[in-house]
Amino acid sequence: MRASDDKKKSFILYADWYATISLLSEKASFLDAIFQHNAGKTDIHLEDRIKPFLEMVFAVMDANKAKYIEHCEENAKNANMPPKNPKKQRGRPRKEKLNG
Predict the structure, then answer these.
(1) pLDDT in tens, 26-50
(2) 86: which DSSP letter?
């Protein structure tokens, strides 16, 4: 993976977290901290009330990012491999272009 590719442009928020998030009065701080963490910042100011939940969210985000990087590296390895059966065409057969 190239150095410029190591920053994921997205992250997952799970719907089952909504019950807890909805109780927070600091929703803006919570979301800001998540975006900062995704951007790779390590000196994020965490308010005491939301810190435990954010630590859990950060752990899930880090695990997801590690899986993503592993998946990208595996895909890069596999892209350099020749097909197992070069004569076998993958997917649906192509339709020929009609002139006209």
Answers:
(1) 888 889 999 999 998 988 888 888 8
(2) T
Q: Is residue 25 part of a domain?
A: no
Does 56 fall in a domain?
Answer: yes
* Cα-based distances in Å from 33 to 23, 44, 50: 17, 6, 10
Q: Is residue 23 part of a domain?
A: no
- Residue 2 Rama label (left phi>0; alpha psi -120 to 50; beta): beta
How much is the CA Rg of the chain, to the nearest whole Å?
Answer: 21
What is the span of the domain harbouring residue 37? 30-77
Rounded-to-integer distance, Cα 100 and Cα 98, Å: 6
